[in-house]
Amino acid sequence: MNRHAGEIALDATASRNLDGVVAGREVVWLSGAAAQMGGQTIWSDVSLTVRAGEFIAILGPNGVGKSTLLKAILGLVPLAAGQARVLGARPKTGNAATGYLPQRRAFDPGVRVRGVDIVRLGWDGDRWGVPLPALPWAHRSRIARQRVREVIDLVGAQSYANRPIGQSSGGEQQRLLIAQALVRRPELLLLDEPLDSLDVTSQASISALIQSVCRSEGVAVMLVAHDVNPILPYLDQVIYLSRRGVVMGPPEEVITADTLSMLYGTPIDVLRDHAGRLVVVGQQDLPLHRLPRLRHSP
Amino acid sequence: MTTELNWNLVDDIRQLLSFHFMLNALRAGTIVAGVAGAVGYLMVLRRQTFAGHTLALIGFPGAAGATWLGLNTAVGYFGFCVAGALIISALPRRGAPNAGLGGFSEESAAIGTVQAFALACGFLFVSLYSGFLNGLNSLLFGTIIGITDQQILVLLIAGAGCLLVLILLGRPLLFSTIDPEVARAKGVPTRLVGTAFLVLLGVAAGGTSQITGSLLVFALLVAPAAAATRLTAQPAAGVALSIMLALLITWMGEAFAFFSPYPIGFWVTTLGFAAFLLATAYRGIADRIARHPPIPYPPRRVLSGSAGR
Ligand SMILES: Nc1ncnc2c1ncn2[C@@H]1O[C@H](COP(=O)(O)OP(=O)(O)OP(=O)(O)O)[C@@H](O)[C@H]1O
Ligand SMILES: [Mg+2]
What we know:
The complex is a heterodimer.
Chain A: H1 2-19, E1 26-37, E2 40-51, E3 55-59, H2 66-74, E4 79-86, E5 98-101, H3 115-124, H4 138-154, H5 170-182, E6 188-192, H6 200-216, E7 220-224, E8 237-242, E9 245-249, H7 251-254, H8 257-264, E10 268-272, E11 278-282
Parallel strand pairs in A: 3-7, 3-8, 5-6, 6-7
Antiparallel strand pairs in A: 1-2, 1-4, 8-9, 10-11
Helix pairs in contact in A: 3-4, 3-5, 4-5
Chain B: H1 9-17, H2 20-46, H3 49-68, H4 73-90, H5 108-128, H6 133-141, H7 149-178, H8 180-185, H9 190-212, H10 218-221, H11 223-231, H12 235-259, H13 264-291, H14 298-308
Helix pairs in contact in B: 2-7, 2-9, 2-11, 2-12, 3-4, 3-5, 3-9, 4-9, 6-9, 7-9, 11-12, 11-13, 12-13
The complex binds adenosine-5'-triphosphate (ATP) and magnesium ion (MG).
Adenosine-5'-triphosphate binds next to helix 2 of chain A.
């Protein structure tokens, strides 16, 4: 099964290179990587390459290790096997060139810290000490404030950025956290379910925003999602994780009846509606939790 | 106190400052309040108030033991509080990786047990040192009498060191408080920062205990900080406000204790509680106004127009 996965990934890379569409440098490179959590292997033999400016979705059922994959790239989780290079170095924490949005964090209503302060932490929260506004550093702090305002405008969070973040809605918090991930102008964006808890319009606008950052600044984006439809038009590659292996390739090659049936070990259909949206249909007697949730039926 | 209140502010303050012990009490109070205000703000933000309270209570057996052995109480307070901080930070942390903000709910049972044991030990030491019953009150509820110059020097060194380390921790401490997972990804050693902060909390609790007593440490450690978080959502302003409130509460509390028969612990706690109540009321009203802004003119005309029809 794993060999099969490897072949697909190889094919995909080759075809993209022939097209000449993707010529960016390697941002993430994994070879034969494996991860363990609590003594159990979550995934193994994962090989993939992500280049600058690519927009990549990571799909797969719950608990298969999508978040763990991002953490391994960040250096938060050590690899149990295999090799990895991220932005030309071994994965390690503290890399200023990566922006990270962890999975679903909600600040409870009691958190009385403003949204701007939280975005600002993404800028210089890892520097020791406190900023001194009245001294020669003032220039630096003006640049920081300007950049923070810029990203807040970019995600459209102006109207609630000065409120305590606990009083913002889940989706508003998510926008502010995306701003926090963007504020340092990262070269690699790792977003764990950023569209979760956003309404349909916001999903579309945030997807478009991430794509424009990806294109205009050549940022590589790896985005974990359960619903692929909002991002489908922008995707260069899809990484599909499952217990039976990992497949990487362009969406039209990976999100197919054959590949998904192989990954799930059960017949699965992939349908397209008139708008080009994907609907994944499993067998009727398939337990609900094993279905890949690619799209909610309307 | 035996002194009379003249109801003349200048006179009263002059009278107050003419006593060396009172001067010392104000000096010690100022140091302690500054530290407690700053550390307390972060403690409230980190939701570690329970740990803070426990550290304060751990100081009690330290001080009682030190008295029993004939040592300086400050040694007992700081020694036990810092040791307690190291023990609490070494407790296994089972919180979910995404938990964020604080994470003491899991350990609260263990911490609570330690707290009760600390109180019991303190009481044992007090019993062992017979003829110390008056001292028990001041260890638990604070005193403004008998703060020595040497004690102030110790408080000053501890307080200055505490504030310096707090400033050094600065942004990474705030980051790992609000957003621990991203902080870790950005290379902030969140575990180390957390331990360092608990030690600072231990120093702050140990210092504050020497003024307010072990049981009423919260008056300076929590009340001003909790009031400040209700008044502003800006971290820098919050710390400044928390320090100012703590100073005000301490100065006023010590002055009131001087002119009245009631102990400092009572006054400081009452003032802290009042500040907290006022801040909470302010927040409630401000939030209500923000939710239901007063209706401007035009709707009134519409209303009267529809009524006429
Ligand atoms: N700290 C941990 N200790 C032990 N096992 C863990 C830990 N964290 C995660 N796991 C396990 O690792 C597996 C992968 O977790 P991960 O969070 O990466 O899944 P996921 O694909 O992101 O799922 P979801 O779609 O629900 O977010 C799960 O089976 C989970 O139970
Ligand atoms: Mg996940």
